[in-house]
Amino acid sequence: MFMSTNDGKNENLGFIKIAIAIIAILLEVLCVAGIKYIDACQRGDNLSSSAATTEATTQQSDDDIDDTTAQTDTNDTEEQSVSAGDICDLSQKTGLLHKDLPEWETPDTCTDIKQVANAFDEYVLSASTDGLTIPTNGVSEDDISLINSYIRQHLGVASSYVMVDGKCKIDIEYDDQFFVYRYIVYGVPIPDDNERANALYEALVEMLSAVNMEDMSDYDKELMFHDYITGIADYDYAALTDPKDRDAHTAYGLFIDHECVCEGYSEAMNLLLTIAGIDNYYISGEASSGSNTDGHAWNQVCIDGDWYHVDATWDDRGDNGISYEFFNVPDAVIGTNHSWEDGYWPECTSMEANYYEYNDLYFSTQDELVAYLSDNSDEIGNKVHVVVGDYDAASYDFSKLVGILWQGGKCYHSVEKLSDDYTYIVLYKN
Q1: How many domains does the chain have?
Q2: pLDDT band at 4 (very low <50, low <70, confident <90, very high)
């Protein structure tokens, strides 16, 4: 049988049409894949660009942070304002995301409040949500009543407790920061219906994503957190007499409302330092100003193996700017006007990471201070703050000191002696 010419042409055309259809399908698949790949690369480039173009400084202002946050990734969904890319990028900067949660093991027995507090900390990190029962021996109800002074503040609080048959049963109340911390460090998702925790998380990501902490020292991280907190917060005096204003006593009040009391400052420092992998404590004690003594909160921080006190609340001078008077000071210095229970928190004796010692602004003698002012008079503006070790009111000539810096105009000075070898001095001109 012979096939006509037209039939052969039609058969060839059929094959050609089928081939074209197959090629078209393949091209469509490849095109979609390519678009997805390019989009993924662009998202990655955006994140990398954000990190590369952000300048990490040890004294970054609130305005600096606001400016740089605009460089973070904006490819978010409506359901989640912070993308997975942001989380991974944040992980690289902090080095802490998705650590393994510790496994809980009930201790044989706890013989003091320290062990009870440590057991509490380990338990809540195990992702457990129920109440905690701890075997105790020699631990009184008075001891247990102090537990919230000893547990890690970002992990929650003991809302109630009862002592029965040598055991302590503790009910746990989780704060917003607990869910945020566990998400950033351990990857445990924040419940969708927890609007406060999600808002706090977004505020932290906005701040942390604006800087690249990968190559920063622990000192520089701490200083950055200190300056950010004191820069955005206003002390909420009204909250001191308003028992309903609970947010002012929390990190949420600082990061979201930008108004808080000492507990908010200290919780915020505790949360940021912990996320950055810097060992620290939230300290609950008392502080004295003049003849008044009130409850107060601040932090202890471990820098290069040594422990220090840092009080961001007292370093926030409002319209007068940021002070570093209480940035990494030893017990002997802060103990002048702060008090706390001895025996639980680490002893602080070093001055190595003190702000003024670290930045060569600590002077043993008045002659050293005079030399510094003379050498740097052209670079000092209308204010300078230092610490001296030999202060004696009768021997210090402040007219000479301000005369080195400024000729004419009204010049002032303030002095606060905290110990025999630590006197905070501010010289300024209106």
Answers
A1: 2
A2: very low
